[in-house]
Amino acid sequence: MTPLPTFPRLFCLVSERDDLALLPALADAGVDGFQVRAKSLATGDLVALTRSVAAAVRVSGAVVVVNDRLDVALAAGADGVHLGASDLAVADARRIAPGLVIGATCRSRAEVVAAAEAGADYAGFGPVFATSSKAGLPASLGVAAVTAAAGTLPLVAIGGISAATAGEVRAAGADGVAVIGAIWRHPDPLVAAKELVAAVS
User: Fold this and answer.
1) Torsion angle of alpha carbons 198, 79, 93, 89, nearest 10°?
2) What is the CATH classification number for the domain harbouring 65?
3) Residues at the annotated binding site for Mg(2+)?
4) Tell me, what's the pLDDT at 138?
């Protein structure tokens, strides 16, 4: 496994619909992780998007992972891949790409333990709160579930997290948080990012 020397405290999910011109400023403001998630893009376009994101944020030291697609992460030179329950198995991804950071979506402590045993470097845990950013999610898990799941792998809490709740989630045991709407739906994404960075510091 390749654990990160300093685990990102704030992941911002990025798609082709977001204002990519803001990425350098977001990274400079302290957003230290970016997850490329663009499920509708063709493979070549997703590779190009990932390369663009990496070029924009790596100068600030931010980590770039790709949602679902190990092949794209490898082709684009990303730092890692984040795998959901229906994606390539963590153990297979670890065998194919021993040098990449691998995250796994988890919704219970048992799933976090299983992900660790399979070779994951971190667990994306959620949805902690209700969210409209992704359809078909189960009921929100709540902050207590974060505490129950903490301690095996670094946890990245996701789902309805805002600057107002990020500190609470971190205090409950999350090593970091991941957001979409809290940045991209804010009237001023850069201001939102700065508020989130302060909340998770």
Assistant:
1) 30
2) 3.20.20.70
3) 68, 87
4) 74
Check: CB of residue 100 under 8 Å from CB of residue 77: no
Which residues are documented as binding site? Answer: 35-39, 67-68, 87, 105, 131-134, 160
- Rg of the Cα trace of the chain? 15
Structure confidence at residue 131 (pLDDT):
73
pLDDT at 135: 63
In a domain, 166, yes or no: yes
- Domain span at 193: 10-200
| Separation CA 31–CA 184 (nearest Å) | 13
pLDDT at 7: 84
- pLDDT beneath 50, residues of the chain: 1
Closest alpha carbon to 102 in 147, 145, 156: 156
Sign of CA dihedral 183, 189, 193, 195: negative
3: in domain: no
Q: What is the DSSP track for 76-132? A: HT-SEEEE-TTSS-HHHHHHH-TTSEEEEEESSHHHHHHHHHHT-SEEEE--SS--S
What is the number of domains present in the chain? 1
